[in-house]
Design brief:
single chain, mainly alpha, 7 helices, 2 strands, about 10% strand
C-alpha cells in the first residue's frame, strides 16, 4: 500500500494527498491492527478522503500488478541485504528491531528472514494483497478517524466524513504501470 500511494501522490503532483503510510500492529495472538495515515494539502480534506477511498476500492477490486509486487520484492530484499551487510548501521532495520523487541518477539536472523521473505514473495499473488485494501475500505470493524489542525475550521462531523468517503464510488480500473520513456541518465550533458 505504501508503494502504491507513493506512486498515486507522484502522479497527481501531491495535489490531493501529500503523504500516506500503512502499517500493522500486533494487538494479541489473534488480533492484528492494519492502519493507514494519510496527509492532505490545504484546508479541504474531502478530495483526499475520496481519493483514498477510490484507490483502496481499486486495490480491493483489481489487486496489485505483478510489476508492482516485483518492484516491492526487489526493494524489500535489497533492504534485507543492506541490513545483512551493514548490520547495526542500517537505520531502518534498527527501528524495525526495536519495534520487534517492544512486542516481546524474538527476531529471526537476517539470513532466515531473507529465506522466509523469498518464500513469501514466491507464493504471493496480486489478488492476495487486495484483501488488505478491502479490510481498510469495507471492513465491518474499521474506524475512520480524521484529525486536522485547529486552524482548519470548521471540523467536520463524523457523518460528513462517512458521506465524503462513501462518495468515492468511481471505478478507477486496473492499475497501469508507467515506465519512463527515457532514463534519468539520458539527459546528462557530456563533458567537453
Amino acid at each position: 500500500l505504501d508503494s502504491r500511494f507513493s506512486e498515486v501522490i507522484r502522479r497527481s503532483g501531491g495535489s490531493e494527498l501529500s503523504g500516506a503510510s500503512f502499517d500493522t500492529a500486533e494487538l494479541s495472538d489473534d488480533a492484528l491492527l492494519l492502519y493507514g495515515d494519510v496527509f492532505f494539502k490545504g484546508g479541504d480534506w474531502k478530495p483526499a478522503a475520496r481519493l483514498l477511498a477510490a484507490e483502496l476500492d481499486r486495490i480491493a477490486e483489481h489487486g496489485f500488478s505483478k510489476e508492482e509486487l516485483s518492484r516491492i520484492e526487489k526493494a524489500y530484499l535489497a533492504d534485507l541485504e543492506d541490513w545483512k551487510k551493514n548490520g547495526s548501521t542500517s537505520v531502518d532495520w534498527c527501528f524495525r528491531l526495536v519495534r520487534t523487541f517492544s512486542k516481546s518477539v524474538v527476531p529471526i536472523s537476517v539470513e532466515d528472514r531473507v529465506r522466509l521473505y523469498k518464500k513469501i514473495f514466491q507464493a504471493l499473488k496480486p489478488e492476495d494483497c487486495a484483501r488488505y485494501a478491502a479490510i481498510l475500505r469495507k471492513g465491518t470493524e474499521r474506524v475512520e478517524l480524521l484529525t486536522m489542525p485547529e486552524s482548519a475550521a470548521p471540523i467536520p462531523s463524523p457523518g460528513e466524513v462517512e458521506a465524503a468517503i462513501a462518495e468515492a464510488t468511481a471505478d478507477l480500473g486496473a492499475w497501469k504501470t508507467e515506465t519512463a520513456k527515457s532514463g534519468m541518465m539520458d539527459s546528462i550533458p557530456t563533458r567537453v
